Amino acid sequence: MRVVAKLDGTLVDPEAPLLRPDDYSVQRGDGVFETIFVVNRRTREFGPHLARLARSAALLGMPPVDVPAWERVSQVVIDAWPWDTHPEMGLKLIYTRGPEYGDGTPTGFAMGIPIPDSTIRYRREGVAALTLDRGYSTDLTERAPWLLLGAKTLSYAVNMAATRYAQSQGAQEVIFTASDGTVLEGPTSTVVVAKDRTLTTTPPPLGILEGTTQAALFRAAEAAGWKTEVEPMTVEDLATADGLWCVSSVRLITRVHTLNGTPLPDFTPLHQEISGLYEAVYA
Amino acid sequence: MRVVAKLDGTLVDPEAPLLRPDDYSVQRGDGVFETIFVVNRRTREFGPHLARLARSAALLGMPPVDVPAWERVSQVVIDAWPWDTHPEMGLKLIYTRGPEYGDGTPTGFAMGIPIPDSTIRYRREGVAALTLDRGYSTDLTERAPWLLLGAKTLSYAVNMAATRYAQSQGAQEVIFTASDGTVLEGPTSTVVVAKDRTLTTTPPPLGILEGTTQAALFRAAEAAGWKTEVEPMTVEDLATADGLWCVSSVRLITRVHTLNGTPLPDFTPLHQEISGLYEAVYA
């Protein structure tokens, strides 16, 4: 099941070709994207996702994001989705620099996709995660803007390769570290740790994305009396936490039960509490 | 003018959509490519380019490259190109992981494109180059294979952003450096230096591509009595060289006349000698 619509709101056959061979997404991974979780027609964090799409596009020097157009095409996909049989949908928004031999018009489309069975299983069972070196130091975001750190670009070959590598080692998830060992983020997730009733995530200026799901979770946790903080962490901090999660729009609050091959102490009650805080936001 | 053919040899309309919205190239920049220079129907370094395509695909864990199929589709594009009016062509080979919701068959196509006017001008006039930090240390290729260093992937958003950054600073070309200042490569070129009748380029194990054009040039130079070496270089080595070039299949042997805003001493006679060595390979 998939639903695809062009940015002008036209529904198209998801099996039919849509992109020209010279589209910059195909040729260069040159564009940006977002994945939004939709449950029974209700989007989660739509505004923050669209704001991040706009920030990513600006970092790539692309034409500004047409917010009303993206709102409309998202609604077109939501309206066409078979909610009776598929109550959850991932809504991908893809915005590329357009055809290289075109008139400069960017390409935009929205795609509704089912949540993979593996993602649903990981939500329930948790994952084994491997920390892998991302190769970057933590001081590059400001001084090397051409590295596009902080932009959610379509150039995700490394993110995919890191996940394949983890899978080849028997893990399901990756947590990237900087060259000095500082914890960064997952290839498609944000890292969250609980310790002594404080939730901590890693600072975007280290060279990572601002997490939309993490932000929603932190707001809910603060309202429930948790302390939250955005601070650099080491792998040791992850290993000695009371709870460790990789969070994202479609994987939600997925717990890490094993880190670098070592099982973490069971934290099921804490996991249920934190997941409950997040789910209550949308109840 | 463009000519596009699918890997099965079918010519298609270059203005028509070819890629499904869920193709991994569109979604993730997940695939590999080569750009081959063709002059009056004759390819240059076709074998080395195809070998590098195969190495890149292997590094990404993609199905093996079907060499006879790529040879056939390349010939289809060459046969369809209007050589009378366009004596030079760039032949792009694009090989992606295919549609995410497909049967696992990868996507392949070849595209003949004209050489951009700017590239032709830079061949003649040379370029101003800016050294930019690539953010990586030089020891990652072996110990972090998930970073795909040495693979020519479709995830080129950073390469494009670096070039745009250089252009915003009044330069035309980028030379990436490692985090310790070691010279790496251009976003789409290999760096070559001449000093005391020795040509030097940078070692691929530092985390860069093997250069097809550089390799052809070095073979020709050795045959003409030059010494060649593959050794790490610093930016100071570039600044104090007898000659400095960014070389690639379509830009050929393009000289760098200005480095980080400082004009280099004129080396026109040396440039003519080195360009002549390269062109003689295909005479």
TrEMBL record, chains A, B:
Source organism superkingdom: Bacteria
Keywords: Lyase
One example GO MF annotation: lyase activity
Pfam family, one: Aminotran_4
Keyword Lyase carried by entry: yes
Single GO biological process annotation from the record: carboxylic acid biosynthetic process
SUPFAM superfamilies: D-aminoacid aminotransferase-like PLP-dependent enzymes
One Gene Ontology cellular component annotation held by this UniProt entry: cytosol
Matches recorded under InterPro entries: Aminotrans_IV, Aminotransferase-like, BCAT-like_C, BCAT-like_N, Class-IV_PLP-Dep_Aminotrnsfr
UniProt cross-references to PANTHER family, sorted A to Z: AMINO-ACID AMINOTRANSFERASE (PTHR42743), AMINODEOXYCHORISMATE LYASE (PTHR42743:SF11)
Family per similarity comment: Belongs to the class-IV pyridoxal-phosphate-dependent aminotransferase family.
Protein name per Swiss-Prot or TrEMBL: 4-amino-4-deoxychorismate lyase
Organism this protein belongs to: Allokutzneria albata (Kibdelosporangium albatum)
